[in-house]
Amino acid sequence: MRINWIGIPAALILLMIPSLSAAQDSVENLTPTDDTVSEVVTEDAAAEETETQPVAGEPLLETDPGLDIPGMITVQDKPNNAGNQLVVTFEPAVNPEGIHCYNVYRRVIGEESEDTWNLVKVIPADEPSEFIDGYDPEYPIEPGILYEYKIASVSLEDAEYFGPVYGATVAAEGEWFHTDKVRLLIAASLFILLIFYYFGRAQRGAKMYLRPIAGIEAIDEAIGRATEMGKPILYVPGISTISDVATIASLTILGRVARKIAEYQTRIIVPNYDPIVYTVAEEVVKQAYLEAGRPDSYDQDSVFFLTQSQFAYVAGVNGIMMRDRPATNFYLGMFYAESLILAETGSLSGAIQIAGTDAVTQLPFFITTCDYTLIGEELYAASAYLGHEPKQIGAVKGQDACKAIVMSLITLALVLGILDLVANTHTLDWLRNLVTVSIVE
Amino acid sequence: MKRTVPLMIVMVGGILMMVQYFIPHQYSQVILDNYVEWAPIVGAFALILGVGSLTRLHTHKIRRKAKNWQYSWAVLIPLFGMPFFALIVPQSLGGGSEVHGVHDFLFMHIQVPIQSTMFSLLAFYIASAAFRAFRAKSALATILLLAAVIVMLGQVPIGDVLGKWLPNTGLWILRYPNLAAKRAIMLGVGFGMLATNLKIIFGVERNWLGGAGK
C-alpha cells in the first residue's frame, strides 16, 4: 500500500481547520459569561426552615435556637467538559455563628416528592461557598437536564435549616472543543507537520546523518559475544502493557535483534510480563527467524509468558540469569522498581548488558549497572538505527527538528527573561503567557 | 488483507483518539470509554494464551527431563493449585478466596513474604550500585560523588545539624540542575513518543504486526 505521506497530514489539517473554527464558535456561544450566569428562580420566596427529626430525648430546640440560612444560589455550566459538571455558588449565611457545615441538596426540576432530593455535597462552614457538582459518580449530572438546589445550614447537633429552593436556568452542556488545549493543538500540529516533512524528505532520498549511539552499535558485538561463548541471549521487554509506547519500541527492536540472533544461530530467551505483549513478541520473533531464512531454528519455548506479578517476574528472570547464565542481557522497555534488581543480578552473572528505558527514575540504576544504556528518546530511535530505513531515519530527524525549535525557544526565553530581570520590568509577561500551558484535566 | 485490515484499524483508531483528546463532549467520552473497556476484555483472552504458554514450556521441560526440570513443578503446582483452591474446592473444605481459606493462607503466608523479600533485596542492590557509581575515578565522577553526598546528607536530620547550607544546597541541586536534566530527557521522550506513534498510525513502523507486517 503506497501512501502519500505529505498528503495525509495536509488533508487532516485542512479538515481540522473548519471544524476547529466551528468548535470555537460553538464554545463562544456556550462559554458562560456574566450574562449566562443562571438567573435563579425562587420557587419558595420565604425561607424554608426545616429541622430533621430530633433524636428522642434530646431537647433540640432548647439548646439550638436556630441558625442563619444561606442566601442566593447561582449555577453555571462548567466549560470544557462532557456536560457532566455544574459550578454551584451560594451566599453563605450572614451570621455564621453555630453553623458547622452546609448540606447541598439537588434534584431534577419538576420532581415533586421530597424523597427526590439528593445530598450532593457537604461543605464545612469555613470553606469556600463554591463547588463543582457532578464529581460524585452516585449522583451524576446529566447533560441538558435542569436541576434545582437547596442548601441547609447544619448545626453541631445535625439540625438542618433550609434556605430557599433555587432552580437553575442553565443545564450542563458538553463542548466540542477544549479551549484550554488550543496552544497544545498548535504545538502538536507544528511538530506533526515537521515529522511528516522529514518523512517526505527521506522518501525522496535525501541523505541524513544520525550521530552514532554506543549502545546501539554494541548490539552486534553483544550478540556476537553470546554466539562465541555458546550461551543464550536474554531479552526483557519491560513490565508494561502493549499500550505503552516504550513497549512497542522495545518490540520493534526485538524484531531486529531476533533477526541477527537467528542469523548467528544463537538461542534467545524472551520472558514476558504481560500476556498481550507475549503474543506480539512471539509473532515478532517467529517472523524474524522466517526473514533470516531460519524458520526451523525457531524454538517455540524461547518466548513465553512468565507472570503478571512484578516481583514474581523479577524472581523468575533472575532465576533464568543464574541458571542459564546468558552471555548478553537486553532490558529495553518500561521498568519500575525491579530495574536495579534485574540489572544487578545480570551484572553478577557476568553478562554484557544493554538497557534502554524512558523511565527517568530508573535510568540511573541502568547507567550504574549496565554496560550500555539507551537514554529516553534513544530507545525510540534504536529501531531506525538498526533498520536504516529512510522513513524511520526521517522520523528521527523530525524529532531532532522539534527539539531544535524547543531549545531555541528556551534559549530565547532565558535571554529575554534575564534582560527583563536586569531591567526590572514586566515587559515580557506576554511571552511567559504564550508558552505557559495550563494543567488540563 | 492480512496486513491492510490491521493497519487500517490502527490508523482509524489512532486518528480518532488524537482528535478525541481535544473534544470533551459526551459523545467523544463515550468513544473513549468504549475503547478503555475493550482493553481488559482483550487482555483476559490473552491471559489464557499466556498461561497456556507457561504450561507448555514447563511440561516440555519435565517431559524432556531438561536441565533443572524439577523447578518446573514449583511453577506448575502453584499455577494450578491456587485457582483450584479458590474456585473448585468448596468453602466447607477450606476452598474459596475468603479469609481463612487455603488460598488466602497460601497467598498471605507464602506469596506475600516471598514478594516482600524480593523487594527488600533492592536496599542491598542500591547500596552496591551506589558504591560502584560513586567511585571518584574522574573529575566528573568526583562531582557526582560530591553532589550525591550533599543531597543524601541534606535529606537526613544529621545534615541539618552539620549546617543549614547542607539541606539548602541539596534542595538546590534537586530543584535546578537535576530537574533541568530530567526535563530535558522527558522532552526528548515526548518527541520520541510522538514520532513513534505517528510511525505506527501511518504504517511506517510495522514490526509490531509480527508475521503480518511484511
Tag the structure with descriptive keywords.
heterodimer; A: 441 residues; alpha/beta; Immunoglobulin-like; Rossmann fold; 2 domains; six-stranded antiparallel beta sheet; 43% helix; B: 214 residues; mainly alpha; 7 helices; extended
Q: Give the radius of gyration of chain A.
A: 32 Å
- Largest sheet, strands/sense/barrel of chain B: none
Main pleated-sheet profile of chain A: 6 strands, antiparallel
Q: What is the name of the CATH class of the largest domain in chain A? A: Alpha Beta
Mean pLDDT of chain B: 90
Along the chain, the helix and strand elements of chain B come as: HHHHHHH
> So how many helices of chain B?
7
| Rg result of chain B | 26 Å
List the helices and strands and how they pair.
The complex is a heterodimer of chains A (441) and B (214).
Chain A: H1 7-30, E1 41-42, H2 60-63, E2 73-77, E3 86-90, E4 99-108, E5 118-124, E6 130-133, E7 147-155, E8 160-162, E9 166-167, H3 182-203, H4 214-229, E10 233-236, H5 245-264, E11 268-272, H6 275-291, E12 303-305, H7 310-324, E13 328-332, H8 338-348, E14 352-357, H9 363-369, E15 372-375, H10 377-387, H11 390-423, H12 429-435
Parallel strand pairs in A: 10-11, 10-13, 11-12, 13-14, 14-15
Antiparallel strand pairs in A: 1-9, 2-3, 3-6, 4-5, 4-7, 7-8, 7-9
Helix pairs in contact in A: 3-11, 4-5, 5-6, 5-10, 7-8, 10-11
Chain B: H1 4-20, H2 26-64, H3 70-88, H4 102-133, H5 139-155, H6 157-162, H7 165-201
Helix pairs in contact in B: 2-3, 3-4, 5-7
Give a structural overview.
The complex is a heterodimer of chains A (441) and B (214). Chain A is α/β, with parallel strands linked by helices and 441 residues long. In chain A, helix 8 (338-348) links the parallel strand 13 and strand 14. Chain A has 12 helices and 15 strands. Chain A folds into 2 domains: 31-167, Sandwich (Immunoglobulin-like); 212-388, 3-Layer(aba) Sandwich (Rossmann fold). In chain A, strands 1, 4, 5, 7, 8 and 9 form a 6-stranded antiparallel sheet that branches. In chain A, strands 12-11-10-13-14-15 form a 6-stranded parallel sheet, sandwiched between helices. A 3-stranded antiparallel sheet of chain A has the order 2-3-6, with no helix packed on it. Chain B has 214 residues and is an all-alpha fold. Chain B has a domain at 134-207. Helices cover 78% and strands 0% of the residues of chain B. Chain B has helices spanning 4-20, 26-64, 70-88, 102-133, 139-155, 157-162, 165-201. In chain B, helix 2 crosses helix 3 and helix 3 (70-88) crosses helix 4. The longest helix of chain B is centred in the first third of the chain and has 39 residues, at 26-64. Chain B is extended, with a radius of gyration of 26 Å. Chain B starts with a helix and ends in a 13-residue tail after the last helix. Chains A and B meet through helix 1, helix 3, helix 5, helix 6 and strand 12 of A and helix 1, helix 2, helix 4 and helix 7 of B.
